[in-house]
Amino acid sequence: MGLIRSVLLMQLMIFLNVILTVKASTPAVAKPGCQSRGGDVIIPYPFGTGGDCNITEQFLITCNTSYIPNKAFLGNGNLEVINISTDGQLRIFSNASYDCYNTSYRNWFYYRLQLYKFSINNNKNKFTAIGCDTYARVEGYLGQHYATGCLSLCNNITDVSNGSCSGIGCCQTSIPKGVMSYNITIESYENHVDVLPENPCSFAFVAENDNYIFSASDLRGSNFKDKQFPVTVDWTIGTTSCKEAKMDTKNFACQENSNCVDSENNSGYFCKCFKGYEGNPYLPNGCQGSSIGFLGLLLGIVSLCWMLRQRQISKLKDAYFLQNGGILLREELSKRQGYREDVKVFTAEELEKATNNYHESRILGQGGQGTVYKGILADNRIVAIKKSIIGDPSQVEQFINEIMVLYQINHKNVVKLLGCCLETQVPLLVYEYITNGTVFHHLHNDDAASHLPWETRLRIATETAEALSYLHSAASIPIIHRDIKLANILLDENHTAKVSDFGASRLIPSDQAQITTIVQGTFGYLDPEYMLTSLLTEKSDVYSFGVVLMEMLTGQKVVCFKRSEESRVLAMYFVSLMKENRLLDILDPRVLNDENVEQLKEVATLACRCVRVKGEERPTMKEVAHELAGLQALPKHPWSKNNLAGEESEYLLGKFPSTYNDGVTSSSMGMGYDSINNKITFELEGAR
């Protein structure tokens, strides 16, 4: 290794000597003594690799030497840089959000981009969504909250036209001006059941206008999961105009032979060399009238980055452990009482062996913020190993605190967190492995071996209610799940319910009954009070669970555009039939018999109480679990013609919005679809 380094150093010195002999007037790219390249990316000042090499911290470029060749990243984050222009723009790679289904589970990933000081160029980028059962949103912050998106539907891929993104198989919409961050969420109205296997996935992404041309073949695969898309970003110096900046002669960035140009898209300015001049307008004597053809010779600087990589390899494991909060986790484990004794901090080597070095054949799926692998531990236990990503180093303490809370969850009807590993580049979470799919699959898929008899459905509902009651009131810190639905209730080999997918969950401090959040959940299950106020309470889970009960009673999906307009949203339709004493019209005939009518009636009444408009009028999950447990033991009686609506008088009975083809407008979410161009309208809300 030492001989190789000496040879490389000698070659570098010879190469630098050649550079010193070339034309003396070759203009510089970076400040003297600073690195001018990161891999294939030229790093012009005001950008730089740290210290005095960049004008401010927001212009920091990190050269990651763990890649061959090296890669340049913006700041200390994970945004890979493609190109930097001194004319106020740079190009970065971004990823797509996706939502994939098969007959047994769902894989999803929501992509978030945070630029802090720079902004997305609204003229050179578009938001695109692909799928036959797809509702995609992009939301973020540009001084106040914004949200926009589009809807893409199709019944058959043969109906889709290549190159067209008009809402049939593909849809597009513009990005607001000045956006500095965005979060892409993507949903399916019917879990792609009606379009499988032709279209198993929905995708959504922001990309440069001319980068992507839609093809019908894109609907058939999952090739967008790992694909990256170029995005053009605007950058500026400071936040003042040229006129104001020139008054501060000490800090004014534009050097001789250059003009100051005010940014059109956001505050601040950038510099340009005079016409006929070339070079870097931010460096003294940077703009020159002669050619800068010798800049290519500076490629030799990249050799320095490669050499640094050799020195870093031996330290990476410890660095990752510190970066991911390993020391903090050890301290918390040693001082806290009440956590399960079977939790474990795994080593990287243990999980590498368990997953056969993370071989692609071990991938179970991808969701939220990571990839899930099937692992076999040394004691032959089968586990699910999830790579989770901490996008912001400042969130490490919160991440460790949430890990500690999840460690303390020990309930037979909640998927158990077995341990974690912090020695890798991204944290790894180890969960118990659940083998029998979701309740959604058993209830709705035609190829399911069993559609679940009523006794099993009632037991699953009771177990789920007990798990939610535990999370709300028995856990050390109350946890609101925020996305209760049949697809998030797993079943083991004995059809025992296991509540899963805590990616949207929130911890509620003991001195608070509610918290304010960005609205997140699944259409059809989402609490209308939460949608209107953004105030998340335990009663939001109660509403979602009420819809789950209705789904189990009826065997129908919560939203289905093949049904008539008044029956498309199950919750509203169910309540209206209960008011008209017509419960029999909607009950699943596979569960209805003379002996269980009383149970069905009582569960239906309980479901209606759970979806009352005012959260304070809904029962608690503890009360719901108690009632369901009692109904399991209820003696079976023949049908009686009692009033099935009971005394319920106030439910979610607002008029269902107008539709366009299979589209839907939801005024409660502050969004709608344009019947002309089939796009969700752009909306601005006050920042919360």
Strand order of the largest sheet: 14-11-16-7-8-23-24-25-27-26-22
Helices, by number, come to: 14
Indicate the radius of gyration in whole angstroms.
Answer: 29 Å
Return the average pLDDT rounded to an integer.
80
- CATH class (first level) name of the domain at 439-654: Mainly Alpha
**At the fourth CATH level, what is the homologous superfamily of the domain at 439-654?**
Transferase(Phosphotransferase) domain 1
Helix content: 10-25%
GO biological process, one term: cell surface receptor signaling pathway
Catalytic activity: L-seryl-[protein] + ATP = O-phospho-L-seryl-[protein] + ADP + H(+); L-threonyl-[protein] + ATP = O-phospho-L-threonyl-[protein] + ADP + H(+)
Signal peptide: 1-24
Protein name: Protein kinase domain-containing protein
Protein architecture, described:
The chain has 688 residues and is α+β, with helices and mostly antiparallel strands. The radius of gyration is 29 Å and the shape is globular. Helix 11 packs antiparallel against helix 13. Among the domains are: 91-234, no CATH class; 342-432, Phosphorylase Kinase, domain 1; 439-654, Transferase(Phosphotransferase) domain 1 (Transferase(Phosphotransferase), domain 1), CATH 1.10.510. The strands form 9 sheets. An 11-stranded mixed sheet has the order 14-11-16-7-8-23-24-25-27-26-22, covered by helices on one side. The protein has a 6-stranded antiparallel sheet with strand order 3-4-5-6-17-10, with no helix packed on it. A 5-stranded antiparallel sheet has the order 9-15-12-13-34, with no helix packed on it. It has 14 helices and 34 strands.
